[in-house]
């Protein structure tokens, strides 16, 4: 391979954020980092504890200058606490409190933990305005359904992260909040006029750009008025004309995971990589599925696209320059001291709301109505963990309401749901239990959109460990 070929391969590899299985870095990742690989995206299966994560990031940094990224939103989407649940509530809880200083403190604490473990880019905050109640992928990840509220908390969150030299990645541009399809599975569509997009979806992104967001993540969402039927990730009209041109953004553009079906089932992984680079992306998050063979094929396809004139060399050089600027920023400051994670519990306590009177607990039976995890969240544990209670988790389709009521006879009954508004079987089961037991306490650990007509009702605005603890404190006070 000639020097120019090696230089082109280095530029191509420099656009990629790869993933790998396990809690130590494979040899191929270390080799590719030495050869110019852009960096890595870590997932829950890469994280055992802070000491292990620190050792992993140290090994990665010894091999190159990687961007080390993960999704740490707090709340339901956590990688640091994937196995136990986050000590921080997510955005829905912070939006419900609506104290931007609190949001700043929570995200500064998250950023401090990430910095201490060697992570330099957090794929957060979520800046989507969640206007679709039945949105299957955003929900409690959003600060709310009001554009101005989402904007001010997005700014507070990114400033909290960046105050400790962890780059924020504001997502998902140009907006995933009005969708009813999960982009992991298909291409969602936000079919609204341009004036609605400017007054709603784009407001938080505009605010984030003015506040100095170091990176912005693309959405695999089609916005017909801008992108036609293709997702924004592949659209120059979205990334170059709208984001760069109209909104004036000059930082790093990161793609959402390219292994999602919105890309792989339409243009393919390697084809999607070339097309998103041509559209204006700088760093390509590949997601957890691609193998080393896939990574090599993607690099080869990018190199071939430059040679064939499908992708300008100047586009790769521009991406490399932006990422180099980001790396320089990583080293420009010092991480602040970590704020004790008690700030997360404080935030969760302030978010929780109670409607109706909760009774003193007597030998309580807690019925947790199972809710399937979303792909973005993964299989993070959730539930009430009420001390001295018997807890059963049931699938609503299999549950026998009469048997459960018999089991609860003479005892306090607590029913825990998560996004009941999205699951008819869950609502039916809750309604049957409450109809028979008016003294039931219902705890909603998702968005509090549906509630039974009677019964005490506690809304936590999220299912993180901190949210659960706040609810337990209310029940046992």
UniProtKB/TrEMBL annotation:
It is an enzyme of class 3 (hydrolase). Its EC number is 3.2.1.52. InterPro entries: GH, Glyco_hydro_3_AS, Glyco_hydro_3_N, Glyco_hydro_3_N_sf, NagZ_Beta-hexosaminidase. Keywords: Glycosidase, Hydrolase. GO terms for biological process: carbohydrate metabolic process; peptidoglycan turnover. SUPFAM superfamilies: (Trans)glycosidases (SSF51445). GO terms for molecular function: beta-N-acetylhexosaminidase activity. It comes from the Bacteria. Residues 35-325 form the Glycoside hydrolase family 3 N-terminal domain. The keyword Hydrolase applies. Belongs to the glycosyl hydrolase 3 family. This is Beta-N-acetylhexosaminidase. It comes from Nonomuraea dietziae.
